[in-house]
Design goal:
The protein contains six helices and eleven strands. The longest helix is centred in the first third of the chain and has 16 residues.
Length: 188
Amino acid sequence: MIHLLKYDKEYEWLIEVNGDYVAYAVSGEAYDYVEQTSKRMRRLAEKMYSFPFYLYFESYYESPECILQEKDFDIRYKPSERTVLTQTGRKTFQAEVPAFTVTITNTYLLDKAFELWFQNSFDNHLWAITQEDIVYYKNGYASVDLTGGITILATEHDANGFTLITNQVDYQKESLLRAFLEETIKEL
């Protein structure tokens, strides 16, 4: 089953969206909702976008070295300039929230990226996919300007579904979007 909920106000989660758009939260009823969200986002990204497309995610302060050593990926570190209070041992300090952009060129890399890093979305870090490389950081937060037929897929809190944010006419009407989703991701 697919639950579709249209936002009745501006989308506010981990990415600031500028411009005119509609946003729909998409979720299901799976016991393992994180796995369901992962599968549905991958399937939908492959259906909506053509390769290459872009994955953006944030992680923990100690993760950049480990993430950047993945040789299969074209991955770039983006300083978010946002810090959070964190602790190691008994030491408390401000640590930067690292951000990354990954170019996804095929299904294998899409699946591998989700396998390696999707846990970050469950931990309430940014996890978003776009066709073009359009996400930038402003005042410490991911931002995007929606112009000319753009659709973003971004996970919801605890990866309990995702939100489709769009100014593409084909996806703005709820009945058309529901039919498209039912055809594309219903079985997952």
